[in-house]
Amino acid sequence: MKSLINKIRYNPEYEKINHTINTSMCLGCLGLSQVIKGTIVAVYPHFLPIFFCIQFFGSTIQGSLSDIYKRAVVLNISLGILILAIFTLIISGNGQTHFVHFTQIICITCIGLGGNADVVGRSEIVDLHYHMDRRKIMSWTVLAEAFSWVIIGLLMRYLNLKPFNIFPICLTFAVVLLPLSLLFNTDKTEDKKHLQNMKNELNLLVSKNLKKLSLITILIIVAELGYFFFFYSQEHHITKNIALLADSYLSWFIGMSFGCWILTKIKSSYDFIFLILGFAISLFSIVLFIFWGMKDISNPNMFYVDSLIYTITGFGSGLYLPSFYAMISREHSIHFQGILTGWVDSIRILGDALSNAVLLGFALISTLAPIFISGFLFLLSMLILITKRRKLEKKN
Fold this sequence. Notes:
Elements: H1 2-10, H2 15-43, H3 48-68, H4 71-92, H5 98-114, H6 117-128, H7 134-158, H8 167-184, H9 194-232, H10 235-238, H11 242-265, H12 271-293, H13 303-329, H14 337-362, H15 369-387, H16 389-393
Helix pairs in contact: 2-6, 2-7, 2-8, 3-4, 3-5, 3-14, 4-5, 4-6, 4-8, 6-14, 7-11, 7-13, 9-13, 9-14, 9-15, 11-13, 12-13, 12-15, 13-14
């Protein structure tokens, strides 16, 4: 058994098998992390400000560490942290004592700082398939994230699980992934001088790519704010109906799958076109919702309308989200992928946190305001993209 594992791990003849195992494992880490983070949001809403703040820094920090040290080592540590933290959360339960709350805060902090297996997994997939079209790689990773939300919806709908009861399933999956990573995961950058490469890449970023990265960051913030405003504005309707919640996740995933499929079929670099299409389609879905679906989202007779709107929304996300990752990723070498993908994740978290904070105020004013703001933000994304197109497409 040991000789077979060593062959798969080190023998060039078994490289394809090794890549398949490692790619599947990294995609599994992406999905697992999303399920865990989504469950934390559902179970501990009172700790959201802390969790978002810690995760904002944790994603970039852990991505940077995976660039400096072996990617496999950081991923194994991340999975170990997830196992210990989830196990502790399960043991502590949902008690209301100060000790339980303190334990929950510690576990959530550990997950936010050191449990970002999705960031490391995404970076390692780039390492494994570095010469492949970057939009295709990022489409895989975005789909793995999206599918995890489908799993959450299905578990809650058909197994009648409460959000807290998803933790044992996550723990089991993490326990399976960690041995696979320990046995088969080989870092594709382990023979390089990491710190020197990091310095070179950082100099390249500051001297040539900083303006482009700043522009993409602004676009991501605006687009993600529009995205989260749209979904969170309907949360009080959807969460009351588990079937509607599961159907909305599934419809969104189907639309995103179609968008990602289109990205994988077109190899030429048309980032501007895919971004503008993604924003326009997202804006169109909001317009449909305003004039067609806003009547009563929880009405069973509106099922097909709601499913169509969520599918169109997912389609738009499936076009622009992988394109964002790909644009940033392809600007730098294999030694700088962790910090870049971690930065994109941090900006997405910032959009999630800001929309949550703003919606607390809108809940007291008007339920219509977030929808119109979402449409305005996607329109703003299109205008920024059109006016700054030359800077975005500038070759360095």
